[in-house]
Every structure is written in structure tokens, then in C-alpha cells.
């Protein structure tokens, strides 16, 4: 038998070593989960994530069917493709879960987030905050002599950009709803 030579800088992969074929790249996925609207369901879904050490980047929940008592949970999470697959499979096995949709892989979707951003300031800083709010299409929903509360809706990146610009102008508080998302098109 002859010895197999391996070039420096390369590695030998066995067909039986499955880890060599799996991706370690982290991906962000938006999952839409339709569940029974009853007590304890949200805790069970969150428990699935926390019990296995999966992170939740964003979480929103609201009732979508009053007569059928169903709610939609929109979860944004990050993980390897294998972890995302495992999360979806475990969610689908839960009894109060009716549907699990991975909006990230099912096609184009629309994501939006609402934020309330409180900014204090006087003089030029106040004028600049209003100018930037106009550019970002943020609405003033409350005002006093030395503060504003802006309401902004958009992608998480848009909300982040607006908040970053407000920091030097006196940003003191941010409240965010988390992401709401729907697939585009007729399906």
C-alpha cells in the first residue's frame, strides 16, 4: 500500500466526517410561527430557544385570529444553517404550533419595525433633530420645551441609523417593537 500525501495547507476529509461538510457561517433568519393563543405557549417557544442556548434577536407576538384564538410569533434569530434547521424542526413538533415559515428562505418578504426615540436638546441641536427626523420621515408624537419623542417605522437598519444620528443630539431613550414581517406576493 502506498502512503497518501497531503499538501501543506490542505486537509484530508473523510466521507464519514460529516462535520467537514457543514457550514459554520452564521445566518440571520426571520421565522413566522402561528400558534394557539393560550397561556404558556409563548413561554414554551421561548423555552425552546433558551433551553438550547439559541439567541433571539427580535420577538413580536400578536393575536391574528380572534375567533380561532391564534397568534403569530415573529422571531428573528441567528445561527448556522444546521441550527436554523433544528429550530424549525423543533418548533414544528410543538403541539400548539400550526405553521412555521422561514421568511428568509421562502422568498422575498417585507420587514418593518416601529421605534419611539426620545431626544433632548435646545437651540441648534433641536433644529438639527427636526431636520433629520424629516429626512427619515420620523413623526414627532410628543414635544416639550426641551425634548421630542419621535416615532419612526422602517427596516431595523433604518431605525439604527436614525438612532445613531440622534445620539450626539441628545438621545436619551429608545423603545423598539421588534420586527413584524410578511412574505411578499399572493401566497
Automatic annotation (TrEMBL):
Q: Which CDD domains match?
A: ACT_AHAS (cd04878)
Superkingdom, taxonomy of origin: Bacteria
Alphabetized GO MF terms = acetolactate synthase activity; acetolactate synthase regulator activity
Supply the alphabetized keyword list: Amino-acid biosynthesis, Branched-chain amino acid biosynthesis, Transferase
Tell me its EC number(s), please: 2.2.1.6
Catalysed reactions, as listed in the record: 2 pyruvate + H(+) = (2S)-2-acetolactate + CO2
| GO CC annotations, alphabetized | cytosol
Q: Does the keyword Iron apply?
A: no
Query: What is the annotated role of this protein in its UniProt record?
Result: Catalyzes the conversion of 2 pyruvate molecules into acetolactate in the first common step of the biosynthetic pathway of the branched-amino acids such as leucine, isoleucine, and valine.
PANTHER family in the cross-refs: ACETOLACTATE SYNTHASE SMALL SUBUNIT (PTHR30239), ACETOLACTATE SYNTHASE SMALL SUBUNIT 1, CHLOROPLASTIC (PTHR30239:SF0)
> Which named protein is this?
Acetolactate synthase small subunit
Please give the organism: Qingshengfaniella alkalisoli
What gene is this protein a product of?
ilvN
Amino acid at each position: 500500500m502506498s502512503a497518501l500525501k497531503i499538501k501543506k495547507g490542505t486537509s484530508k476529509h473523510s466521507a464519514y466526517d460529516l462535520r467537514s461538510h457543514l457550514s459554520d457561517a452564521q445566518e440571520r433568519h426571520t421565522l413566522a410561527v402561528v400558534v394557539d393563543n393560550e397561556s404558556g405557549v409563548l413561554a414554551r417557544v421561548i423555552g425552546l430557544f433558551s433551553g438550547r442556548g439559541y439567541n433571539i434577536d427580535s420577538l413580536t407576538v400578536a393575536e391574528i385570529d380572534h375567533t380561532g384564538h391564534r397568534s403569530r410569533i415573529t422571531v428573528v434569530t441567528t445561527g448556522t444553517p444546521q441550527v436554523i434547521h433544528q429550530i424549525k424542526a423543533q418548533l414544528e413538533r410543538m403541539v400548539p404550533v400550526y405553521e412555521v415559515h422561514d421568511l428568509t428562505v421562502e422568498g422575498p418578504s417585507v420587514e418593518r419595525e416601529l421605534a419611539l426615540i426620545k431626544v433632548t436638546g435646545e437651540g441648534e441641536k433641536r433644529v438639527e433633530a427636526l431636520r433629520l427626523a424629516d429626512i427619515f420621515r420620523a413623526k414627532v408624537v410628543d414635544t416639550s420645551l426641551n425634548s421630542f419623542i419621535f416615532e419612526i417605522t422602517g427596516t431595523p437598519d433604518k431605525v439604527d441609523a436614525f438612532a445613531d444620528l440622534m445620539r450626539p443630539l441628545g438621545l436619551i431613550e429608545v423603545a423598539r417593537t421588534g420586527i413584524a414581517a410578511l412574505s411578499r406576493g399572493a401566497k
